[in-house]
Amino acid sequence: MSTEQTSPSLAANQTPGLVCAHNHFYSFLARGMPAPPRTPTEFGEILELVWWRLDMALDLDIIYHSAKLGALTALEAGCTAVIDHHESPNAIEGSLSVIADACAEVGVRVNCAYGVTDRHGPEGASAGLAENDRFLSAGGVGMVGLHAAFTCEPDTIAAAAEMGRKHGVGVHVHVAEGPADTWQMLDGHTNDDWLLIHGVHLPDDHGLSGTMVHNPRSNMNNSVGYANPRRFSNPVALGTDGIGADMLDEFRVAFVKAREVDVTATPDTMWDWLEAGWGLFPQAQNDVVTWNYEVMDPWRLAYTTAVAPKRVEVDGEVLLEDGAPTKVDAQEIKAKAAEAATKLFRKLADL
Ligand SMILES: [Zn+2]
Question: From ligand 1's centre to the CA of 215, what distance in Å?
């Protein structure tokens, strides 16, 4: 990624394009899905009964419509750059290109990674590594993905780290989201260009290198605990972990979560986390979002809800005007996504 930017000068009601530092576009059709076979009682069961069933049911067509809806959702929230983490064990090859193409049609920038795991045996891990390699070798914007240390063999982690070095990119990996994650296996592999997602159960002095990506709403939803990322020496950025791509909303949740444990916390810290996204995805600084709120100031935004973009320009091209996309038909994307969701839910029922 180039770090030389010629950022446009901005008015008080404008920002560069916002960056979501961790998302899962494959999960955007999950809203409205049938209830799991039984109610999960802890994070491990949420993975087993919800997400590891959903990812098994994905095919390339469903992935395309899910990613397109995700990109539209991001654009409508003034988020012009998304760092995505993808898994579809029964449709691995080509999946990252499908996501990149869907995002390009909407005009949203995306950084893709396939979350490699040994959950489906060594063949599954090899296929995941191969998809990262294929996509990056073809010039795709991405990273090497790992699901999490606790679902990977040591050799798989080493292979992902090596592949990242080969392509000059970092590894995008979930770290210590729940207490069962054996994150220590990552020790000795990490680098400053890695993305460490969550870190809820990491000790303060964990020794891992990389940017810590905080997803406060997802962590609360999964009842995994509070990461309190201010305790780490790593840089911190913000992600949504699959729950939309409204980064102003995530900033607000991050602020109020910090206030819950420390009334002296200020929104400047969480605004710094939002701005850290531009270090990860510098191209978003070429984008201009004009908001329906006059002053884009952290203290005001911490207490102002429903701030939305009126206009979004990506690299000088207007992609959203008066809140509506210009390149694509939002209603059509939503209708096609609803059809794909129906197919997905039918496949889930047959699992
Ligand atoms: Zn995640």
Answer: 8
Q: Ligand 1 centroid vs 322 CA: distance in angstroms?
A: 32
Question: pLDDT by residue (tens digit) across 47-90?
Answer: 999 999 999 999 999 999 999 999 999 999 999 999 999 999 99
Cα dihedral sign for 256, 261, 262, 268?
A: negative
Question: For a pLDDT cut of 70, what percent of the chain falls above it?
Answer: 98
Chain position carrying tokens 């039918």: 346
User: Is residue 9 within 8 Å of residue 286, measured between CB atoms?
Assistant: no
- Its domain, for residue 161, covers 18-350
Cα 18 from chain centroid (whole Å): 13
pTM: 0.96
Our CA dihedral for 119, 30, 108, 140, rounded to 10 degrees, sits at 20
Asked whether residue 345 is domain-assigned, the answer is yes
Question: Is residue 278 included in any domain, yes or no?
Answer: yes
Alpha helices in 145-245 (DSSP H): 154-167, 216-221
Q: Using the mean position of ligand 1's atoms as its centre, give its distance from the Cα of residue 198 in Å.
A: 8
SS3 341: helix
Tell me whether residue 12 is in a domain: no
Ligand 1 mean position to 318 CA, how many Å? 30
Strand bridging mode 14-16 / 288-291: antiparallel
**Regions in the chain scoring below 50 on pLDDT:** 1-4
Kindly give the distance from the C-alpha atom of residue 85 to the centroid of ligand 1, in angstroms, as a whole number: 7
pLDDT at 37: 86
Contact 318, 312 (CB under 8 A): yes
The rounded Å distance from CA 145 to ligand 1 centre is 11
CA of 201 to the centre of ligand 1 (A): 15
If one counts the domains in the chain, the total is: 1
Q: How far is the CA of 165 from the centre of ligand 1 (A)?
A: 22
Q: Domain with 200 in it: what CATH number?
A: 3.20.20.140
Cα-to-centroid distance, 218 and ligand 1 (Å): 9
What's residue 351's pLDDT? 80
